[in-house]
């Protein structure tokens, strides 16, 4: 997978998520779980899903509990070992996957990577992308890294990532504290108009994440 494709889908879904009612809002990782269950079309153990996303079991329990509460997945005991919890996508979950995939596709502007990709293919991308977890701060690093040596303002990062301005501002502040980016306020009217640059350490962190993304393989849906 190319970094530009990853960023295009993440931005589009961030915009979709903003427009979704809070009571039914899913994280990207939860959306990816639904896509994985829809793709394999068979029940999966919670531990298997956790391994797929590189998540700790308590984190995965929280995610699957949320999806089950919304009626998007069914959770039950394993047939062989009742201590294992297995998850399967519900019909409502399949419908919601289709809705989210189409909504995400519609948010990808003409000329952007995957703009002409079908909604079903978007599901395959989200399924594959679910194996690489990125925080908002890491998305900021990737956005800066994708621009080479060119810096960005907070406003430009908000536009390129589809995140809310407070989320980007807090992420930038945290990244500055950790020495991964720095702010050039020369001639800046406000913090939002000053330019954000990657430090050498920040560039190496972003490069490592981009390398993980490039190793992701997007599978095709099996032919019926």
Characterise this structure.
- The model has no long low-confidence stretch (mean pLDDT 92).
- This protein has 2 domains: 3-129, Winged helix-like DNA-binding domain superfamily/Winged helix DNA-binding domain (Arc Repressor Mutant, subunit A), CATH 1.10.10.10; 136-214, Arc Repressor Mutant, subunit A (Orthogonal Bundle).
- Helix 3 (46-53) packs across helix 4.
- The chain contains 10 helices and 5 strands, in the order ααβααββαααααββα.
- It has helices spanning 3-19, 28-40, 46-53, 57-69, 91-106, 119-129, 136-145, 154-161, 165-177, 200-214, and strands at 44-45, 73-77, 85-89, 181-184, 195-198.
- 55% of the residues lie in helices and 9% in strands.
- With 224 residues, the protein is mainly α.
- A hairpin with a 7-residue loop joins strand 2 and strand 3.
């Amino acid at each position: 997978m190319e970094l530009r494709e990853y960023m295009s889908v993440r931005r589009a879904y961030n915009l979709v998520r903003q427009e979704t009612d809070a009571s039914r809002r899913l994280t990207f990782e939860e959306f990816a779980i639904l896509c994985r269950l829809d793709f394999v079309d068979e029940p999966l153990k919670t531990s298997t899903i956790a391994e797929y996303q590189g998540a700790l079991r308590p984190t995965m329990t929280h995610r699957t509990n949320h999806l089950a509460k919304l009626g998007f997945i069914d959770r039950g005991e394993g047939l062989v070992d009742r201590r294992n919890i297995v998850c399967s996508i519900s019909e409502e979950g399949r419908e919601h996957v289709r809705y989210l995939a189409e909504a995400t596709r519609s948010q990808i502007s003409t000329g952007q990577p995957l703009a002409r990709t079908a909604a079903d293919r978007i599901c395959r991308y989200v399924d594959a992308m679910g194996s690489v977890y990125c925080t908002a701060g890491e998305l900021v690093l990737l956005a800066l890294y994708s621009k080479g040596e060119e810096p960005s303002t907070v406003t430009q990062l908000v536009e390129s990532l589809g995140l809310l301005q407070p989320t980007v501002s807090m992420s930038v502040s945290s990244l500055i504290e950790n020495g991964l980016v720095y702010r050039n306020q020369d001639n800046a009217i406000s913090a939002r108009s000053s330019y954000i640059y990657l430090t050498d350490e920040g560039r190496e962190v972003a490069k490592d994440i981009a390398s993980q993304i490039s190793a992701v393989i997007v599978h095709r849906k099996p032919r019926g």
